Amino acid sequence: MNQIIIHVDMDAFFASVEIRDNPALKGKPLIIGALPGERGVVATCSYEARKYGVHSAMNIKEAFRLCPHGIFMHPNFDKYKETSHRLHEIWNTYATASQTIALDEAYLDVTERAVTWEGAREIGHLIKRRTLEEVGLTCSVGVAYSKTAAKMASEEKKPDGYFEITTPEDFVRLIIDRDVSVLYTVGDATAGKLHAAGIHTVRDIRERSAEVVRLLGKVGNWITQVAQGIDERKVVPYRPEDAKSIGREVTFQQDVIDYDLLKDILLLLSLCVEHRAKRVGLRGRGVTLKITYGNMKSISRSRGMTDTRSAIDIYHEALRMLERVTHHPVRLIGVSIYNLTGDKSRQLYLEELFENAFPSREQETQRLLVGLQERYHLDFAGHLTQIYHSDTLHRTVEYMRRHFVPQH
Q1: Could you read off the pLDDT of 293-310 as tens digits, one per residue?
Q2: Fewer CB in a 10 Å sphere around the end CB: N or C, the chain?
Q3: 196-226 burial by CB neighbour count: b if 16+ within 10 A, else e?
């Protein structure tokens, strides 16, 4: 036996947390995300709402059309993050390596702790019991010989399920006559290409593997391997330094036409990016500005830098890129840093050695925040830490949009 992997996946996580905290919501079609009449999508929904065809990432207007009597709620990310921390503490107790996929999902390598499939079965049921008793939520657990099989197993008996796939042969027997989309690496676009070529099931992939590789290249090679039940990937703990970028974006409830407002919002986004980067000890060597216009056309502009060392650096670079883009009504704006590196690798710069020779970045930040406070009558400086929370950031941005007064 090479490895035993457990995949744990919470059941409708956001919705389940809200139902746990308000039992009156139990048994009702609960939809977490934007509210009807707002721009946005469904983050998740209860199983009762799914019966009406509502699902994650669905446009909220479509969700309301399908389920107008549903209960719509904004997400409470702070509460979900706190709950997630408690969950991962429980799960990690049983693993020699844990790979966090999301707030509500993880792969656990239990090979050494379990030793046998009987031991793994005991751990799987123990995780389910402790998750329910200590956090008040149900989860689905898959126990398998590989990551792909473990992910498949956790999906097999949802919600509150448990399933095992102990060999590649068992995996193939389970999925061979299912649609190609059953393989989690096959998204809608890939499935469409396969279907167009007359490849509809996993059996078709196995029988026409050379054609799949010609059609999809490296991705096709991987898919044909998975269709054979082959997946030797290890559980690799997530490290912040492995991230490709760190960013923050906001979607407006109405298109923004005044770019002076966008400049103010870029300052807040830059501060959020700096905060997230410092929290994990990273900094970037490039800045990206992302814009989605009202017609849904998206553009991005990037520029490498010697070192994006602060929110002010990020902000000024994003401003320069904003000034060069075509000015149309904007639906979404975001900023991120890339080419990430750890703090320990950076060099001291002239203004750090002779800090009195240059205005400090902190002073410039405070000056800009005072300007925001004067324009919007909000205490940005005094409550900056609250802006870092997604809910507060979006509420603040919407307040700014509604109360913005053009300067010309």
Answers
A1: 999 999 999 999 876 768
A2: C
A3: eeebbbbbbbeebbebbbebbeebbebbbeb
Structure-token match 């099989």, residue found = 149
For 46-79, the pLDDT digits (tens) are 999 999 999 999 999 999 999 999 999 999 988 9
Identify the CATH number of the domain defined by range 240-403.
Answer: 3.30.1490.100
- The yes-or-no answer on residue 156 being catalytic is no
Whole-model pTM: value is: 0.78
C-alpha 247/C-alpha 271 separation (Å) is 10
Catalytic residue (choose from 18, 48, 105, 164):
105
Class of domain 172-227: mainly alpha
CB 130 within 8 A of CB 123: no
Q: What is the DSSP letter of 344?
A: G
Structure tokens at 118: 């009987």
**Class of the domain covering 13-76:** alpha beta
What residue has token string 């704006």?
333
Please state, in angstroms and rounded to a whole number, the distance separating the CA atoms of residues 87 and 135.
Answer: 7
Sequence spans of domains, the chain: 13-76, 172-227, 240-403
pLDDT tens digits, one per residue of 107-151: 999 999 999 999 999 999 999 999 999 999 999 999 999 999 999
